UniProtKB/TrEMBL annotation, chain A:
PROSITE patterns, alphabetized: CARRIER
Signal peptide boundaries: none
SUPFAM superfamilies per record: ACP-like
InterPro entries referenced in this protein's UniProt entry, alphabetically: ACP-like_sf (IPR036736), PP-bd_ACP (IPR009081)
Segments forming domain Carrier: 5-85
Protein name: Phosphopantetheine-binding protein
Gene3D superfamilies in alphabetical order: ACP-like
Protein's organism: Niabella ginsengisoli
UniProtKB/TrEMBL annotation, chain B:
Name of the molecule in the record: 3-oxoacyl-ACP synthase
Highest rank taxon of the organism: Bacteria
InterPro entries noted in UniProt: Thiolase-like
Species this chain originates from: Niabella ginsengisoli
Length: 90, 180
């Protein structure tokens, strides 16, 4: 799966997992901030995103502080997933 | 303890998919209405996206409070002067079961946060900015005497000037809310 496809899939998963009623993947720009501004997610949503990474991509966040960078936007999440998948494959 | 004169100014009930405000039927969902809460959200113009993240108990309480407080003059009270005292029979059993089911695979944080019945009070308080005393009681059926005693006490000792009271119960997709 290339980055573009992964980003679209992530947007669908985020909408479903976080019950973002009325939102479509098209409403979320790749570089929109996920927290406060942008999508306006909160701390509970952050935990749900960690669960999503584990559940859907088998990726466990090793360091909670990394979350701030990884969950900055859908694009940064996709970068992190691809990086982890590449690392696991090598 | 002295008894204060307490008045009920408004009432709302959500029962058997019917919303009644001050004894007048406001809304009635058809038998086949698939998502009762989506129906309430749309028809009551709730316009609060967080509604969709809530569990059924909080959705029910929030929808009932939305009707109850439509004409409430919030500006006449300090946030600390508005109390909330609710009760029910089933606690947060639906959220508890949903969380338990999720915990068999990946426990869901957003389900976990609703595994206490008093969260419905928190959701109403957040939406309207109320900061007064509050309590959630579990009892077999609505105990009007106890609620009267408790609210009377809040008014005399905790500087509460008005209070949202009632019953908010969800079990097996049976919704029963009576707020006043």
């Amino acid at each position: 799966m290339d980055k573009k496809e992964l980003i679209y899939q992530l947007k669908q998963q985020i909408i479903k997992q976080l019950n973002l009623a009325g939102k479509t993947p098209e409403d979320i720009r790749d570089d929109d901030p996920l927290f406060v501004e942008g999508l306006g997610l909160d701390s509970i949503d952050a935990l749900e995103l960690i669960v999503l990474l584990q559940q859907e991509y088998n990726i466990k966040l090793k360091n909670a502080e990394e979350g701030q960078t990884i969950f900055r936007s859908v694009a940064t999440m996709a970068d992190y997933i691809l990086e982890q998948q590449t690392g696991a494959a090598n | 303890m002295q008894h204060t004169e307490l008045y009920i100014t408004e009432s709302v009930s959500v029962l058997n998919r019917t919303v009644v405000h001050n004894d007048k039927v406001l809304l009635e969902a058809e038998e086949h209405t698939e998502d009762f809460f989506q129906f309430l959200y749309d028809r009551l113009n709730i316009d609060y996206p967080k509604f969709f993240k809530m569990d059924a108990l909080c959705k029910l309480g929030t929808a009932a409070a939305h009707v109850l407080l439509r004409h409430f003059k919030k500006e006449e009270y300090l946030p600390e002067e508005v109390g909330i005292v609710l009760s029910n029979n089933s606690g947060s059993i639906e959220a508890d079961i949903n969380y338990y089911e999720s915990s068999k695979t990946f426990p869901s944080p957003s389900l976990f946060v609703y595994t206490l019945p008093n969260i419905v009070i928190g959701e109403i308080s957040i939406r309207y900015g109320f900061k007064g005393e509050n309590a959630f009681f579990i009892s077999e059926k609505f105990d009007a005497q106890w609620i009267y005693f408790y609210v009377n006490n809040l008014m005399q000792n905790q500087n509460i000037k008005c209070c949202i009271c009632g019953w908010v119960d969800v079990k097996d997709e049976q919704y029963n809310a009576r707020l006043f």
